[in-house]
Each structure stands twice: as structure tokens, then as C-alpha cells.
Amino acid sequence: MKLVGFGCSFTYGSELVDPEIGPEFHHKNTHYREDKVWLGQLAEMLGTDVWSDNRSEPGNSNYAVQYQFVDWFNNNRDPNETVAVCVAWTSPRRFSWLGKKWIHNGYIQNDGETLFKNSHKDWITSGIDNVYYTDAAKLFVNSVCNLHNIPIVQFNAIGIHKSTSYKGYFMDGMTMKGCLQDAMKSDDRLDLFASGGHPNEAGHEYFTIRLTDFAKDRIIV
């Protein structure tokens, strides 16, 4: 079985760097990063016949996740292959637009505080009402998976989302980031974040251990 994963930097594995390679060899770090991120660890914990296909991007919005899911479903999915979709939804304040490549407003917003008002592009980057795009993305991805009997495991990586009734929603009302922060408050021996605010190897492992039993109930391996 293949786990096809979508999300932002929390699924991409930002700041997971092989100490023997170093960040200056980013392309050589891909295997390490994808093994240590929660998606890769979940595949390992589910069994030897499970592997992952990580299609996330740093800075991704849920709007972009929807269209990256479409691209996978229409152009890269093998109907004869057994798959499960795994989505770590990101902040609804984010938005993206597609030029020659995806451009994400997470890279140009000023800490999410500045609201731009002077143009359509400024409105797109402002984060105003982007929650509707998140709702639409969730509805679309879940509907396609349900229609085609594709198991889905999903959770909120960062950002506040409305409560949902979708199948396979782990810790609804909580985020991965919040889960790790609460764990560190409860046990000051834990160190679950890298310096830039992304989960480190221990953070991804801590979360995946809790996600695995939930995933096993929803994915037939």
C-alpha cells in the first residue's frame, strides 16, 4: 500500500536535516527528510509493505492542496494500486496561486497581521475569508476519496479549523503543533521542535505514535 501525502512544511519535513549531510546539500537530504517526517514514519509503523509518496510543499495553502490532490488523482494515480490519502491541513489564512509554479502567500505575509486592500492580488494574500477555500478543499478531497473508496487519514497541522464530521479526522479541534506544545508543557524533558518552529525528529515520532492506531482502524494494510 502507498500513503499519498499532502500538506505544508509540517508534512514536507522542513528542518529535518541529516546531521551527516547538512542543510547545504538539500537535494541529498530528501530521503532522510521523507523517512523522518510523520508520513514516512507512519508508513514504517503500518508495516513493511507500506511506503509513502510525499507531495507536500513548504508554505502550502489548503487551496493548493486541493489542486495538488487533483493533479495526483488525474495524472499520477494508478487505479490498480492500493493507496490511502493522508492530509495534514494547514492554516486557513494561507492562500496560493499558480503561475509557472505555486506561489504561497505564507512567504509574503507580514506574520499574518497585515491586511492588504489595494488590489485583487492583495486581497488574495490578505488571508481574508480564506476559510471558505479550506472548507471547499476539505469537502472536495473527502468527496472524491469517498466516491472512489480511497481511505483517508487527515488532521490539522497548524491553524484553527471548524469542527468537521469527515471520516478519518484525527484529533478534530486540535492541531499537530498544539499537540506537541501541550506535550512539552506536560513534560519539560521533551524537546519536540527545531529552532525554526517545525517539529524535529522526536516531534514527528511523538505525533506519529499517537496517529498510528487511529490510522490502523481506517486503513486496511
Number of domains: 1
What is the CATH topology classification name?
Rossmann fold
From the spread of the alpha carbons, the general shape counts as globular
- What is the distance, rounded to the nearest whole angstrom, between the alpha carbons of the first and last residues? 6 Å
In helices, the fraction of residues equals 25-40%
Largest sheet: 4 strands, parallel
Question: In what range is the share of β-strand residues?
Answer: 5-15%
Strand order of the largest sheet: 2-1-3-6
Give the overall pLDDT as a whole number: 87
Output the radius of gyration: 17 Å
Total count of strands = 6
What is the correct CATH architecture?
Answer: 3-Layer(aba) Sandwich
Low-confidence runs: 110-119
What do these coordinates show?
- It is a single chain.
- With 221 residues, this protein is of the alpha/beta class.
- Helices cover 39% and strands 13% of the residues.
- The protein has eight helices and six strands, in the order βαααβαβββααβαα.
- The strands form two sheets. The protein has a four-stranded parallel sheet with strand order 2-1-3-6, with helices on both faces.
- β4 (96-98) and β5 form a beta hairpin.
- α3 (38-46) crosses α8 (201-216) and α4 runs parallel beside α6.
- The longest helix has 17 residues, at 131-147.
- The relative contact order is 0.17.
